[in-house]
From TrEMBL:
Predominant localisation class: membrane
Lineage: Bacteria, Bacillati, Bacillota, Bacilli, Lactobacillales
Cross-referenced InterPro entries: MFS (IPR011701), MFS_dom (IPR020846), MFS_trans_sf (IPR036259), OPA_Antiporter (IPR051337), Sugar_P_transporter (IPR000849)
Identification of the protein by name: Transporter, major facilitator family protein
One Pfam family recorded for the sequence: MFS_1
Domain Major facilitator superfamily (MFS) profile: 19-413
GO cellular component, one term: plasma membrane
GO molecular function: glucose 6-phosphate:phosphate antiporter activity
């Protein structure tokens, strides 16, 4: 009990910093490995005699695999423990990336990319579960905000080394270097994540016919999807995350094709987009942890910022570098600031024994949104021949998500409880 109260009242401990470093590095490598093919694809498809369409199916294969396992991965994380599932995901990344170095045909590479998505499915649920076990409610959002920065950083890292290695040593060497990252992450995280957390996962123990029973994984899943807040967060993710990745993936294209800036200028603008997104995610977490307002209220406020930034981005005057940098940077805030709080809510609205299941369920909707939004943008562009109209329509998505957030309520599960000992369970 003393250690439990100390974990709640004290400032961040060295162990908490080590835990955060462990999950940050583990999730970082997930982004590096998933982005590796996109980076080396121009060279690899020539070497392997692939068409551009075949190369693009490798990108799609990962996300199909990932979408398949996010929910069962979260359920397995609840069953076997968050640390074990995260290490398993990192080890899976190591094995698959090593195998990709030796790929020779279209089908073996496609299967490996699908496998990479499958083994990566549990990673986010496991990381968020670890945060709930090691950080109390007054520190979790800040910890989640810092953790989220690895997504933007992953894009930076892969572009720092992969093109250079590719030019000098070839695309197989670039994949081999990429395989080193999950190896390093596995070794570091294995030791960094050791220890007994102050807020361990609690399974429901109940009496039935004179026997003590625990809830099964399917029982926990049924309870999860019967929760209104879980469904509202799922709808939020479907629209807000879809809009986020839709506008992000199209931003470079819009800047070059519609606004007529050159590729270098577009790259500088998107670098600013990445910087503001990283800063905003940390700031959002700090504000939420140190405010008396509820998390879903702050999430709605941050998400409402997204719509006007998309509109402003769509109407950037041609040739105006100042407005280009301003609205691109602002859109980085709008697109990512809310994600710190919504990720936090995905585990805080869940009972302690369903955190992986609930976050996996919500993340499945996030992935669907990430698939659908770029397709919708493409269809609108084909119908209207207007990038601006495409962006204006997608700008409505965050507003739908804001409405859904208004129906989210943080449950009693947000209150940390004293760990239950084996003796007490018996």
């Amino acid at each position: 009990m003393e250690d439990h109260m100390k974990a709640i009242s004290s400032k961040w401990t060295g162990k908490q910093m080590m835990i955060l470093a462990g999950i940050w590095l583990a999730f970082l490598i997930s982004f590096i490995t998933r982005l590796s093919w996109s980076t080396i694809m121009p060279s690899a498809i020539d070497s392997l005699h692939f068409t551009v369409q075949q190369g693009n199916t490798y990108v799609t294969a990962f996300y199909i695999g990932y979408a398949i396992t996010v929910l069962p991965g979260g359920m397995l994380a609840d069953k076997f423990g968050y640390r074990k599932m995260l290490l398993a995901a990192v080890l899976g990344n190591l094995v698959v990336m090593t195998a990709m170095v030796f790929m020779h045909g279209y089908w073996d590479g496609l299967i490996l990319r699908l496998a990479l998505g499958l083994v990566s499915g549990p990673d986010l649920s496991a990381c968020l579960g670890i945060i709930t076990e090691w950080f109390d409610v007054k520190k979790r959002a800040t910890a989640t905000g810092i953790f989220n920065t690895c997504t933007s950083f992953g894009l930076t890292v892969i572009n720092l080394y992969a093109p250079i290695v590719l030019v000098h040593y070839g695309w197989r060497a670039a994949l081999a270097v990429t395989a080193f990252f999950p190896l390093a992450a596995f070794i570091f995280s294995y030791f960094a994540l050791k220890g007994k957390p102050p807020f361990p996962q609690q399974f429901v123990i109940r009496e039935k016919n004179g026997k003590v029973e625990t809830e099964t994984a399917m029982m926990r899943l049924k309870k999860a999807i019967n929760n209104r807040s879980v469904w509202m967060l799922a709808i939020t993710g479907l629209f807000a995350t879809g809009a986020k990745w839709g506008v992000t993936n199209w931003a470079n294209l819009f800047i070059v094709k519609s606004l007529k800036f050159d590729l270098v200028t577009a790259g500088k603008a998107m670098s600013l987009f990445g910087i503001t997104s990283v800063i905003s995610m940390i700031v959002a977490g700090y504000i939420s942890d140190h405010s008396k307002w509820s998390r879903h209220t702050w999430a709605a406020i941050f998400m409402a910022i997204f719509t006007p930034t998309i509109v402003g981005f769509a109407f950037i005057p041609h040739g105006s570098f100042g407005w280009l940098y301003f609205w691109t940077g602002a859109m980085g805030v709008g697109a990512f600031m809310f994600s710190t709080i919504t990720n936090n809510l995905s585990v805080e609205v869940a009972p302690p024994d369903q955190r992986g299941t609930v976050s996996g369920f919500i993340n499945a909707f996030n992935q669907v949104g990430s698939f659908i939004a770029p397709v919708i943008l493409g269809q609108i562009l084909a119908a209207t021949s207007s990038y601006v109209e495409s962006y204006l329509i997608i700008a409505a998505f965050p507003l739908i998500a804001v409405v859904a957030l208004m129906f989210v309520r943080e449950s009693d599960a947000t209150q940390d409880v004293e760990p239950v000992t084996q003796a007490e369970e018996k």
